[in-house]
């Protein structure tokens, strides 16, 4: 008996209209545990080499972990994976809510979708019933509009993920939306679903998940919920959620502002977590089984109309807020709503809109191409740009490629301020004086995403003192009032970056949220014991799980090498803005990343990873991890 | 008397459903829980939990008098139950459920949901 797993893989061939179920492969479980482990392995093995992201043969994979759906904190995360249209390489994106647990209760740990449906369709999964159904009536409609309509038609208990217009129109940063405000945002995952003619996936599961020791899990589960309650962050961090970090980021000069021209603004108080609580919030909204719900569901009122929206969370606040110079919390929430509705990732959206505003200001995009006279910080301008991207009208068709592709087409020196790595837009932490954080972004497998590495706290600690291992709650509840911040030390960042790059995605393997660990400091021992009661297997978090997490890192690097013809070191550099332009104001005024430091960090990093100087895993490294690629 | 739900703080996590079935049925299966969490979105943007408040409608409907008031709690006496299912539709919140052997089951006020709820949205009086 396979404890902790539902036990099956679901295979859907949309071109053939075929659905097959097979037992979950034991090799996957033994070697890759779950979630991100499964998806990396399956994408490498089953995606035919060098298929285009929008080729029907590109796989769309959904995977749950052994802890998903169980009685333990935040067991509700779903992992998606595909070859990314944004980067042309390995792509994955993680989502909260209630969708994946229903897939697992329906009996499926893994779902592999290939092919392309003949007409706009949705996939209906209700325990053993799996059908590809026409979705013509939903095509062209907004994400939450479709979710509401489907729940009305099918029943409230069905969990629904949808794409919006942007996914249908193959925008490179289209997302998947679910549960009226949760997204798998990154890498253009929604566009791949759109390329398959799939508007939505619906899941309901009512089966039990077998666990090794139900009594033990009950006891440990209760203890773990109780332990979360005892953490200072339980009461301190939860009320504002991720938005609680806004002022700290501004204080330490890391808040992306005006397309990353600078890292500090003078209106952080207007766009922070407190502003959300005061102006927007109706209810705390969390994912399945989560004791520290970070979602803030609210109601925004703007001159364009009033809308219900979950968020904005920190990435949205920073990237659609200060990075576009929008200093009004209602306005930011409104742009968040538009992104959710048309189905684009708020992180990439903020980076692309701010890039477009800068191009327009510099005269690289004309008023005619833009369709209106756009301005920094203007809600109408931002919404206009979001809409033309989703519809691919005018310059929107170019911007839909993301900043890398758009800069190639727009030309001039725009690639210098196209803020991305590998084609994926940078998220909410400006890093010119945060070398570890920058290295984390540079070397992330999917491109510039903080989900793979977050060492900003330790970078700041090297400059101003403090605990390098502080939780986010420790950081934001501490003192961060700095006039100037000395240059952060880059000498010892590599071990910290590696640790973070293995630790953060480890939770994506187990199928839980990482924030209970990261933000409030729930100890890893809890996960070891919960894993034991669930599966009957012993696992040392710091040895076994982090070793697997490292192995996945090598495997994904090899996937990128296989798929991108000239892949290597040159894909690991930050945009020129970060090593050519000094930060003009704020506590990090005058700092710029040094190109020599970048080279040095890359050399040290590759060596520590067991990669050659071009950043490719050596044969010895692959053998050490038992990878035959 | 019994369970009370406060929707000002509920975040829809369903930890209560999880502990309910693991405690009472030894299973991980929220769909079998003796309370039911659901959201109403986008408008009004709130969570609700249907709970058993021991109203006794099931007991009233039972032709065998198999549902007996013990202290503050209505409990189903399996020895008397003949599985006629009259109690199931009688529950105003659809929380008399049917187990794999065809017997009805309901909330027994074990209060585990109250203990586990991270938001203090469930209380017991
Ligand atoms: S912390 Fe936030 S993202 Fe994580 S499980 Fe809770 S609600 Fe979801
Ligand atoms: S455990 Fe509490 S917060 Fe979570 S769904 Fe139940 S009542 Fe709501």
Largest sheet of chain B: 2 strands, antiparallel
| Count of discrete alpha- or pi-helical segments spanning 4 or more residues of chain B | 4
What is the oligomer described by this structure?
A: heterodimer
Tell me, what is the CATH class of the largest domain in chain A?
Mainly Alpha
Q: Return Rg of chain A in Å.
A: 23 Å
What is the global morphology of chain A?
globular
For CATH, the homologous superfamily of the largest domain in chain A is named as Aldehyde Ferredoxin Oxidoreductase Protein, subunit A, domain 2
The strand order across the widest sheet of chain B is 1-8
Q: Mind telling me the CATH class of chain B?
A: Alpha Beta
State the major sheet of chain A: 6 strands, mixed
pLDDT < 50 runs, ≥5 residues of chain B: none
Q: How many domains of chain A?
A: 2
Distance between the termini of chain A: 30 Å
First-residue to last-residue Cα separation of chain B: 6 Å
How do the strands of the widest beta sheet of chain A line up side by side?
2-1-6-3-4-5
Which structural class do the helices and strands of chain A define? alpha+beta
GO molecular function (chain A): 4 iron, 4 sulfur cluster binding; electron transfer activity; metal ion binding; oxidoreductase activity, acting on the aldehyde or oxo group of donors, iron-sulfur protein as acceptor
Protein name (chain A): Tungsten-dependent formaldehyde:ferredoxin oxidoreductase
Keywords (chain A): 4Fe-4S, Iron, Iron-sulfur, Metal-binding, Oxidoreductase
InterPro entries (chain A): Ald_Fedxn_OxRdtase_dom2, Ald_Fedxn_OxRdtase_dom3, Ald_Fedxn_OxRdtase_N, Ald_Fedxn_OxRdtase_N_sf, OxRdtase_Ald_Fedxn_C, Tungsten_al_ferr_oxy-like_C, W-dependent_AOR
């Amino acid at each position: 008996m396979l404890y902790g797993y539902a036990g099956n893989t679901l295979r859907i061939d949309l071109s053939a209209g075929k659905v097959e179920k097979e037992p979950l492969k034991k090799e996957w479980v033994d070697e890759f545990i779950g979630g991100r482990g499964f998806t990396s392995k399956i994408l490498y093995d089953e995606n035919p080499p060098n298929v285009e992201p929008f080729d029907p043969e590109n796989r769309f994979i959904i995977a749950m972990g052994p802890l998903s759906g169980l009685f333990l904190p935040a067991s509700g995360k779903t992992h998606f994976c595909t070859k990314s249209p944004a980067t042309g390489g390995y792509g994955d994106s993680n989502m909260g809510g209630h969708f994946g647990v229903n897939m697992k209760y329906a009996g499926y740990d893994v779902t592999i979708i290939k092919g392309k449906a003949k007409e706009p369709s949705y996939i209906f999964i209700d325990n053993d019933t799996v059908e590809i159904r026409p979705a013509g009536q939903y095509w062209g409609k907004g994400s939450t509009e479709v979710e509401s309509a489907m729940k009305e038609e099918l029943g409230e208990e069905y969990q629904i993920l949808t794409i919006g217009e942007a996914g249908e129109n193959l925008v490179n940063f289209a997302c998947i939306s679910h549960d009226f405000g949760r997204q798998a945002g990154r890498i253009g995952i929604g566009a791949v679903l759109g390329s398959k003619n799939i508007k939505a996936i619906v899941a309901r599961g009512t089966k039990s998940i077998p666990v090794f020791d139900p009594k033990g899990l009950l006891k440990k589960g209760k203890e773990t919920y109780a332990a979360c309650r005892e953490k200072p962050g339980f009461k301190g961090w939860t009320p504002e959620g991720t938005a609680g970090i806004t002022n700290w980021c501004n204080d330490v000069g890391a808040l992306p502002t005006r397309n990353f021209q600078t890292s500090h603004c003078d209106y952080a108080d207007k766009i922070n977590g407190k502003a959300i609580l005061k102006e927007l919030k109706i209810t705390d909204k969390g994912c399945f089984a989560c004791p520290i719900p970070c979602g803030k569901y609210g109601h925004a009122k703007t001159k364009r109309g009033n809308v219900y929206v979950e968020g904005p969370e920190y990435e949205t606040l920073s990237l659609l807020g200060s990075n576009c110079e929008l200093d009004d919390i209602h306005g930011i929430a409104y742009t968040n709503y538009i992104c959710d509705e048309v189905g684009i990732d708020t992180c990439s959206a903020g980076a692309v809109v701010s890039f477009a505003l800068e191009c327009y200001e510099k005269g690289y995009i004309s008023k005619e191409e833009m369709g209106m006279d756009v301005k920094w910080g203007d809600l109408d301008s931002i919404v206009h740009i979001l809409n033309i991207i989703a519809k691919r009208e005018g310059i929107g068709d170019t911007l839909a490629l993301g900043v890398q592709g758009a800069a190639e087409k727009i030309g001039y020196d725009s690639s210098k301020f196209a803020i991305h790595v590998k084609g994926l837009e940078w998220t909410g932490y400006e890093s010119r004086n945060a070398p570890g954080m920058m290295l984390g972004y540079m070397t992330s497998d999917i491109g510039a995403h903080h989900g793979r590495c977050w060492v900003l706290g330790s970078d700041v600690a090297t400059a101003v003192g403090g605990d390098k291992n502080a939780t986010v709650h420790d950081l934001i509840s501490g003192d961060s009032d700095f006039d100037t911040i000395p240059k952060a030390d880059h000498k010892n960042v590599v071990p910290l970056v590696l640790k973070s790059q293995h630790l953060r995605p480890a939770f994506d393997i187990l199928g839980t949220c990482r924030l209970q660990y990261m933000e409030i400091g729930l100890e890893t021992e809890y996960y070891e014991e919960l894993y034991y009661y669930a599966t009957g297997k012993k696992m040392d978090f710091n040895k076994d799980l982090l070793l697997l997490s490292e192995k996945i890192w090598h495997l994904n690097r090899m996937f990128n090498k296989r798929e991108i013809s000239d892949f290597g070191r040159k894909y690991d550099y930050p945009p020129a803005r970060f090593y050519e332009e000094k930060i003009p104001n704020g506590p990090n005024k005058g700092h710029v990343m040094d190109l020599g430091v970048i080279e040095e960090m890359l050399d040290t990093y590759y060596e520590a990873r067991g990669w050659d100087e071009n950043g490719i895993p050596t044969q010895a490294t692959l053998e050490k991890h038992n990878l035959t690629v | 008397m019994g369970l009370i739900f406060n929707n000002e703080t509920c975040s829809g996590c369903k930890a209560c459903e999880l502990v309910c079935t693991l405690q009472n049925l030894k299973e991980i299966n929220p769909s079998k829980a003796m309370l039911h969490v659901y959201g109403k979105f986008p408008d009004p943007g709130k969570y609700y939990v249907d709970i058993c408040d021991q109203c006794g409608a099931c007991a009233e409907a039972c032709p065998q008098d198999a549902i007996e008031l013990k202290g503050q709690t209505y409990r189903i006496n399996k020895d008397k139950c003949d599985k006629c299912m009259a109690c199931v539709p009688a529950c105003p919140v659809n929380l008399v459920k049917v187990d794999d052997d065809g017997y009805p089951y309901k909330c027994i006020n074990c209060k585990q949901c109250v203990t586990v709820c991270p938001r203090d949205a469930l209380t017991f009086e």
